[in-house]
Amino acid sequence: MTDRVVRTVESPSKELDRAMSDALEIGIDVGVYGRLATPENVVALANFAETHAYHSVWLADHIVFPVESRSKYPYSASGNFPLDVSEPLLEPVATMGVLAGITKRVKIGTAVLVMPYRNPVTLARMLATLDVFSGGRIVLGAGTGWLAEEFAALQTADFAARGAVTDEYLEIFKAICAGGKVSYQGAHYRFDAVHSEPPSLQRPHPPILIGGTTNPALRRVARLGDGWMSVGLGPDQIPERLTMLGQLCRARGRRLQELWLCHKLFLSIGQEKRGVHGGRELGTGSIETIVDDIRRIRDLGYRTLIFRYHGADPAEQLRQFGLFAEEIRPKI
User: Fold this and answer.
1) Relative to the CA of 162, which of 104, 177, 323, 324 has its CA 20 to 30 Å away?
2) Strand intervals (E) in 39-170
């Protein structure tokens, strides 16, 4: 019998502590739903990120859009989803496999994956496998979801219990990625011992960034996350949420400074957009205004910003991210 040798990547905590002093990281949401969600556009944008020194590429999560819905989208002023739900939708985990194959350097993350949508053992094994194939480049952005009708279509976990289900599925993810013999007994999911080989390349597991801005989401960060992914907050809301998160971390013997802070926002160079809290949306407007936005967020302790193009023209999308690389990134 020979010993199993596994090449590993440093644990998230060590990597995060070292990275806190590094330059601000900029990622691109490649847009897996909407008019631009075609294989050609997604691949082109991922390759663009790879060759233009962007830190990472990110994928949001939906599997199907219901034809009719009463659910309110939490990140728009009107409560309406910002895109036509009849437009293309690419499943994100499958797409991550494609991106892992065509890139060599950029991190590949979810922003965010709705944990209750998929069987937790299957999902954890898929992500661990992607981490191995990608050379340790996977980041799990995780959330609870908001679209009740999508939960119903998938016949997945009870929408009302999605918070508790997400907590258990994250625990399962960590256990499966650790490798070896794994069992789990929870209120919402349980299984007897199984073999989980190979484990994820990143040890003890790929970094987990918890998405959401509510108090329950922040408690989840403090309890289960390696970091926090904020979205839809105005400049006055971010400091208050960070203060609350710091208090929750201290209650668990953790430091806010240990967390990977990541903020997701839309990019619209040259045209201002209205934000969910009223007023101009961060990341939109003139180059100088966007530079000021980024500096303001960076100075709050953020490590990573993720931008998604706010439009439907593939040529303009590449132009804007090229302009960002040439005119904005050098100033931050």
Assistant:
1) 177
2) 56-59, 107-110, 113-114, 138-143
Identify which of 212, 329, 210, 211 has the alpha carbon closest to the alpha carbon of residue 267: 329
Whole-angstrom distance, CA of residue 2 vs CA of residue 328: 53
Confidence (pLDDT) at 287: 98
CB 92 within 8 A of CB 32: yes
Q: Residue 82: what pLDDT?
A: 81
Q: What is the CA radius of gyration of the chain?
A: 19
DSSP string, 64-78: ---SS--PPPTTSSS
Query: How many residues does the structure list for the chain?
Result: 332
Dist. CA 156–CA 95, nearest whole Å: 21
Amino acid letter for position 195 = H
pLDDT < 50 regions, the chain:
1-7, 11-21
The CA–CA distances, whole Å, from 41 to 35, 181, 316 equal 10, 41, 12
CB 123 within 8 A of CB 176: no
Q: Is 152 helix (H, G, I), strand (E, B) or coil?
A: helix
Q: E-assigned strands of the chain? A: 25-29, 56-59, 107-110, 113-114, 138-143, 180-185, 190-196, 208-211, 227-231, 260-269, 284-285, 304-309
Domains along the chain with CATH numbers: 12-261 (3.20.20.30)
Please give the full DSSP string across 211-255, using - where no structure is assigned: E--SHHHHHHHHHH-SEEEEES--TTHHHHHHHHHHHHHHHTT--
pLDDT attached to residue 276: 75
Angstrom distance (rounded) from CA 133 to CA 97: 9
211 and 112 Cβ atoms separated by less than 8 Å: yes
The burial class, CB within 10 Å (0-12 / 13-18 / 19+), for 70 is: exposed
CB atoms within 10 A of CB 7: 8
Given a contact cutoff of 8 angstroms between Cβ atoms, the answer to whether 58 and 304 are in contact is no
